């Protein structure tokens, strides 16, 4: 991985931390996500005004496929949180994505990955699995919980992350990355709207906007900016599995922010998880 691509992915991770924190402070995550995506579409509308290009039919088809999995991700993660704790959902959702991306990269995208790069992805996935566990001895608990619906939704969320990232790697070879990101966002919002209205209704949507206020606007800006940088790194040649794994550093940065700034309970396990992710990123950067 080139230093410039690594820098893009680390900036993306820092931006995505803002989204994580805003989402964590929301009252209703499903309603918050809907407003977040809507604001992203409004804020980045100049992309269409100044950067519109004709989109090939194949490109539109790829964006439609990606948007289905992105919308399904938001549904799955919302359902997971309704049925399970953060310490169960996060390890399964965030640990699954990078590992599945390796499979898609090798089998579907035919990307050439190095042994050092795959090893780094494994360290990142392990660190992401650990970062929100309550204690070291609890590493089996998320897996044991798979008989319940919430953890299974979390696995589906991680799988969706891996699929839409792999699909987007193909899409940005057809459509310019910024335009691709923007149009795919509106398509995701289109799929997500009926589910959101069924789940929370207009009343809860209005209440969430009143509760979160400008947080939805800020999250809208950071979520699209962050993913656009990921796509730019992939467009410049970074394998999807590397980009998808390194961007997850945001989870560890968010956990550190929670401990140091929000005064959440911290523990040795978060330090170990952060060290594993840092070692994984280093391995991907130097050996990938």
In short:
This protein is an all-alpha fold.
Please characterize this protein's 3D structure.
The protein has 288 residues and is mainly alpha-helical. Helix content is 80%, strand content 0%. The protein contains 14 helices and no strands. α1 (3-24) packs across α13, α2 crosses α10 (201-212) and α4 (57-83) runs antiparallel to α8 (149-171).
Instruction: Work out the helicity level.
Output: over 70%
Q: Which structural category fits the helices and strands?
A: mainly alpha
Tell me the total number of β-strands: 0
User: Number of helical segments?
Assistant: 14
Order of helices and strands, N to C? HHHHHHHHHHHHHH
Strand content: under 5%
Principal-axis shape: globular
Average pLDDT across residues? 87
**Gyration radius over CA:** 18 Å
**Poorly predicted spans:** none
User: What is the straight-line distance between the termini?
Assistant: 6 Å
- Main β-sheet description: none
Write the layout of secondary structure elements.
Layout: H1 3-24, H2 29-43, H3 46-51, H4 57-83, H5 86-107, H6 115-130, H7 141-144, H8 149-171, H9 177-199, H10 201-212, H11 215-235, H12 240-246, H13 249-260, H14 268-287
Helix pairs in contact: 1-11, 1-13, 2-9, 2-10, 2-11, 4-8, 4-9, 5-6, 5-8, 5-12, 6-12, 6-14, 9-11, 13-14
């Amino acid at each position: 991985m080139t230093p410039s691509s690594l820098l893009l992915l680390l900036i993306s991770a820092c931006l995505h931390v803002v989204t994580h924190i805003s989402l964590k402070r929301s009252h209703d995550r499903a309603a918050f996500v809907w407003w977040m995506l809507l604001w992203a579409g409004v804020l980045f509308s100049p992309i269409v005004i100044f950067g519109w290009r004709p989109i090939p039919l194949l490109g539109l088809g790829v964006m439609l496929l990606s948007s289905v999995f992105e919308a399904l991700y938001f549904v799955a993660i919302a359902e997971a949180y309704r049925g399970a704790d953060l310490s169960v959902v996060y390890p399964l959702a965030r640990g699954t994505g990078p590992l599945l991306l390796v499979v898609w990269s090798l089998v579907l995208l035919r990307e050439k990955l190095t042994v050092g790069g795959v090893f780094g992805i494994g360290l990142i996935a392990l660190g992401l699995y650990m970062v929100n566990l309550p204690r070291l001895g609890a590493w089996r608990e998320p897996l044991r919980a798979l008989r319940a619906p919430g953890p299974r939704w979390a696995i589906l969320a991680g799988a969706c992350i891996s699929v839409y990232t792999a699909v987007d790697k193909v899409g940005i070879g057809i459509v310019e990355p910024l335009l691709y990101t923007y149009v795919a966002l509106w398509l995701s919002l289109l799929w997500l709207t009926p589910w959101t209205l069924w789940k929370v209704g207009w009343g809860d949507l209005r209440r969430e906007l009143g509760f979160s206020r400008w947080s939805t606007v800020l999250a809208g800006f950071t979520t699209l900016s962050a993913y656009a940088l990921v796509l730019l790194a992939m467009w410049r040649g970074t394998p999807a599995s590397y980009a998808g794994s390194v961007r997850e550093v945001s989870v560890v940065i968010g956990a550190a922010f929670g401990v140091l700034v929000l005064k959440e309970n911290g523990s040795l396990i978060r330090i170990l998880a952060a060290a594993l992710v840092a070692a994984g990123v280093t391995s991907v950067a130097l050996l990938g």
